[in-house]
Amino acid sequence: MNDENIAEHHSPNNMNNNDAISNETINQDVFDEFPHPDESNQNGGLNKICTSQPTESGYKYAVITSSYPESSLSKENVTKLLKLLRDNFYEHLELNRQETEKALCFSKFGSKAGALIFHCDNHYTVEWLKTQASSISILIDGFNVPLKVVPFKDIKRYKLTTIIYDQKVKNEEILRRFELQNCNEKLKTCSWEILEKRNHVDEKLFLCIEVDHLSYNIIIKNNYKLHYDFEKVTFNNI
Questions:
Q1: pLDDT tens digits for range 108-137
Q2: Quick check: 61 and 129 in contact, CB under 8 A?
Q3: Which pLDDT does position 166 carry in this prediction?
Q4: Exposure letters 23-46 (e unless 16+ CB within 10 A, then b)
Q5: CATH code at 190?
Q6: Which of 86, 105, 178, 191 could be cross-linked to 50 through a Cys-Cys bond (beta carbons 3.0 to 4.6 Å apart)?
Q7: Mean pLDDT of all residues in the chain?
Q8: Does 230 reside within a domain?
Q9: What is the DSSP secondary-structure string of 130-183?
Q10: Is the separation of the CB atoms in 206 and 161 below 8 Å?
Q11: pLDDT tens digits, one per residue of 143-190
């Protein structure tokens, strides 16, 4: 991504995007299974206004680019987007203190594979998140790319294993090398995630990689083989 600016257009709350971005730690582990929002917590359970009936997708939603997975949210995008959403979130709470039917309730959030993922406790929260995302775009290669919110289950991911010849290469470089290979049919690895990496025999490296559906289709089309470095490597489903 050459330019990672975030712009908010026709914002519901007219927030100032030039505010300084504070440093914050973002949870990179997005939870495979969220607890049901009606389950009790350490403080004796959730407030009743936050326990409406679950949405069809089980409350788990992802904020992604409209062109995902060809383009995805970088770590810098996620940090800035969280700052913007948090500002708008607290402004909404301030303006709707007495409106219990407008309660915004989140349980968890995190980033994974170029997406920002939220666990929403009620339908109103889901709709608020969709409205916010529809008013925001990010600048990628000189173009404003809109955002959208989709059920997390709709982001199809596939786990594959492969072996490469290089034990010292970093994760980012591995993904970059796959994408730079012209023979890999314009493969985009921005949403790939290396789940496991361990040394193998003869200075080789075993990888478990999670890929998007477009990449998976390219891999299948090429008989589960991709060019990497000076060879073709074979992928296997798990």
A1: 999 988 899 999 999 999 999 999 999 999
A2: yes
A3: 82
A4: eeeeeeebeeebeebeeeeeeeeb
A5: 3.30.70
A6: 105
A7: 80
A8: yes
A9: HHHHHTEEEEETTEEEEEEEEEGGGS-EEEEEEEES-SS--HHHHHHHHHH-GG
A10: yes
A11: 899 999 999 988 889 999 999 998 788 999 999 999 999 899 889 999
- 1 lies in some domain: no
User: Is residue 110 a part of any domain in this protein?
Assistant: yes
Number of domains in the chain: 2
**Residue with tokens 């990010």, as numbered in its chain:** 138
Confidence of residue 6 (pLDDT cuts 50, 70, 90): low
**Shared-domain flag, residues 36 and 134:** yes
Domain boundary among 98, 121, 154: 154
Is the domain of 101 the same as that of 184?
no
CA distance 65 to 110: 16
Specify whether 141 is located in the same domain as 164.
no
The alpha carbon of 109 is separated from its chain's Cα centroid by a whole number of angstroms, namely 10
pTM: 0.69
Among all chains, which residue has been given the structure tokens 């959208």? 148
For residue 91, give the H/E element and its range.
Answer: helix 75-95
Looking at residue 132, what is its pLDDT?
96
Q: Give domain status of residue 206, yes or no.
A: yes
Q: What are phi and psi of 120, to 5 degrees?
A: -95, 135
If asked whether residues 206 and 105 sit together in one domain, one would say: no
**Domain identity same for 131 and 170:** no
Q: Which residues contact 43 (CB under 8 A, 6 or more apart)?
A: none
SS3 199: strand
Task: Looking at the structure, tell me whether residues 129 and 232 fall in a common domain.
Answer: no
Query: What confidence tier does 102 reach under pLDDT thresholds 50, 70, 90?
Result: confident
Contact 163, 169 (CB under 8 A): no
